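dude i think i finally got it to work??
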Amino acid sequence: MANDSKDRKHGQTPPEPETKASSGLSRRSFLSSLGAAGIASAAAAAQPLLAATPAPGPACDQAVPCSQDTMPITLKVNGESRALNLDPRTTLLDCLRENLDLPGTKKGCDHGQCGACTVHVNGRRVNSCLSFAVMHAGDEITTIEGLGTPDHMHPMQAAFVQHDGFQCGYCTSGQIMSAVAVLKEGCGPTDDDVKHAMYGNICRCGAYPNIVAAVQQVRRQA
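look at this
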């Protein structure tokens, strides 16, 4: 009683004595065991949901399409048939350079504006960056590698060398392929006619007079 009076005097409430349940467990022990059982039940209920959740897969590289679908195609390039499996979205330019190891055809603007990627398809000049490879099954495709070799140059290649029709050389393969096609297509006799016929081939070094001179030499020889 003395302790009780002292606690009340200082405004403190004495701790409530633990009561025993009929089973002999204290109330605190009973509540603790009840909480533990609830946690275990919740974990057991969540386990099927966790197991059903798929593990995250590798992130898709946005620079490379996730689709790996390809289709078989046979291309005839420089007189040789080549069997390939290609993504239908592969351009003829990328197919030549990456799949067929023919890097002479250059990738310049990749938008059909510079002419560096010019090749022949069935004898006509084509910007290979604007054409899908799968469109050309059965076509005759000729690249600069098939036009001539250092030991056996095509007359147009020899004329470009003779007239210094190139400087950095990046546009040269496209210029030569276009020039050969121009003479087959039919072109007026003057230098201006040649310039107009080849306006789609850009030389950033500015070797246009020498290019025209090379084309005119081949025309005279023919």
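The domain at 148-221 is CATH 1.10.150.120 (DNA polymerase; domain 1).
im so relieved honestly
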